[in-house]
Fold each of these.
Amino acid sequence: MSRYIYLGIVLFGLLFTNCKEKKTEPLPEQPKETTAPEPPKKVLSPHTSAMAMIGDAHIHIDYSSPGVRGRIIFGGLVGYDIIWQAGAHMATWIETNKDLVINGEVLPKGKYGFFTIPSKEDWTIMINKNWNQHGKDDYDANDDVIRFKVTPSISDKITEHLEYKVNKLSETEGTISLAWEKITISFPFKINQ
């Protein structure tokens, strides 16, 4: 038995000595966790504008341009016979530094909300005193300065993003157009002399 005790003491001594003499090396540095910055989210309805000089009149249209993205737009996303802010988010607005004549009526120089009521046949265009509103939340027909109808043209070609254009026809005349999905509407205007 004393032999086993002796052997136990020797083993314990060896272990104790090995543990004391064993050098511990520092752990290798762990790579720091890095996260790549997230790419900026793609804006689905980018804010944009259309403008032109017609003679000395500056016409400016400001809007957010939603995409079709495989959806049915008119009669789907944008319901028929319902007021639409003619863009996304904030109401589309139009500004002119000269009086314009649209559909035989004078639009005094200034800034206006631009609204439509799409339908299968004719669209109603409304140019409204209240230009600074979210969507059509505060639309009031009593604030319409000019209201008239246009007939849309339908194309087989899809315009992916809503697009406005101000086209110069002469030094005193132009057109304003809106195109999205397969629909284009357009109306003429004159500079009020």
Amino acid sequence: MDKLPKIGLPIIVILILVIVVLAKSAVTIDAGHAGVLYETLGDGVDPDKEPLGPGFHLIAPWNKVIDYETRQQQLFEEMRVLSSNGLEIQIDATAWYNPVTADIGKLHNQKGKDYLERIIQPAIRSAARSVVGRYTPEQLYSSKRDAIQEEIFQETEKIVKDQYIQLNNILIRDVTLPPTIKEAIERKLKQEQESLEYEFRLVTAQKEAEKVRIEAQGKADANRILSASLTDKILQDKGIEATLKLSESPNAKVVVVGSGDSGLPLILGNN
């Protein structure tokens, strides 16, 4: 009886040590994440070693795993930049990005987990300053927004190239101009719209007038051709034809043939 506690104590200690070792050695990586293995007794992170994927892993208890999210992430950025004429413009943008999973070891060694602040944010701000500085406030506010958005994306993509980061897209959510400039642009756009509307009505009226003129000219030309083709002989033949048709009507008439200045038949009475 006295020996059992002495034997049981070492077993309890060993079990506790095993539990501690297992707790230190067991690592679970969530879906959409990857782990970088840091070897404490080695050279740290091996950049060429494949990262740990989602699931359960066992590692040496003296090592540790640095977790990285590999899913697409988004950054909301508000920037104040200058237009081509020196006016301050506020740009609200959203960037979609994710680290390249296979290169997480290299990303960790060279940039660390705060790669967002070290690479992506400075790149977007630099690209926005460069691109917006080539445009006027009016272009930023209206016609060139899509082009500016694409240029900022391309400029940022060049900067983060070979940085083990994949930039998926950049969207311009809003462009805020100084109130006085915005009002002036809106007035100008309204005047241009009214001018375009007036020009449209003017062109429509001109086309309608041209249509009426062409129709009138066509009728005049038709009458002139018809008048030139109607000789006295044709008129007499047409008159005779009309008289014959009238004479065939059931209504009583008196037809005098050979009367009148033109020699055409005369129709007297309609009873």
Amino acid sequence: MDTFTELTADRFPLIRDIGRNRTDNLYTHPDRILDYHVFLYVAEGSMQVIEEGTSYVVKEKEYLFLNKNQHHWGLPETPAETSWYWIHFNTLSDDRKDYNAYTPLPELEYYYPDHYEYRVALPKYGVAPIGTEQQFLSMIKEMQEPSIHKMTRISLNVFQFFLDLNAAAKDGPAGAAHRLTERVMAILAANLEQPFDAAHLQAQLNMNYSYISSSFKKSTGQTIVEAHTKLRLSKAIELMRSSSLNIAEISEQLGYQNPFYFSRVFKKVFGEPPSSFMRQFYRL
């Protein structure tokens, strides 16, 4: 995936403005350098634009990100009756280079200390998701109406839209790896009450375990055993919330024969022992 930029999960983009345009004549994109990013979506026709010497032709239902502080311009090659939408936005400067490039796995529903410390890669160019134009019309309408926290709400809506772009990009060449990851997670989720069994996983998928393990690590940034452990601990939290079981009983139900070992694993992942975590669910 040719990446335009990376957002962090704990910071949303700051929107300057959103708009729509249509040309009745042959159009030439302005020659300029901006101090903000541009997201361009073509609803009808096609848009020609050059960024730092690289030429793009954005066709109908496609999008392109243009980087701030880079020279972009156009030739008189955008045909009449082309219509397009744009988002002008900035991202907060971020020196947190240690944030990882992998999103938390979908089956892990509970916060853990580094949950939001990851980056979201946005594709430079691609096909927009279905409903993009409707989203733009809604956001433009919101821009035109006075409301409390208007710009923050619009920024959050755009962040959600950018997350959808990131998700849609995974349907491309990396799609097979992501589908395998989903199958692995489904099998792990169905076997939470027992220790991890590589042979069982291999048999269920009818694939070599070394290949499964390598693909999973490349796709998620963590090992299958780490994912299985987090799934089991998420189940433990669910039991804390929905049952009257004590720590030892929860440990035993999830296949941990030693509750002290279970407590050590829990603290390593969530930053506190299960007894402390459990207190927040007590009702006075």
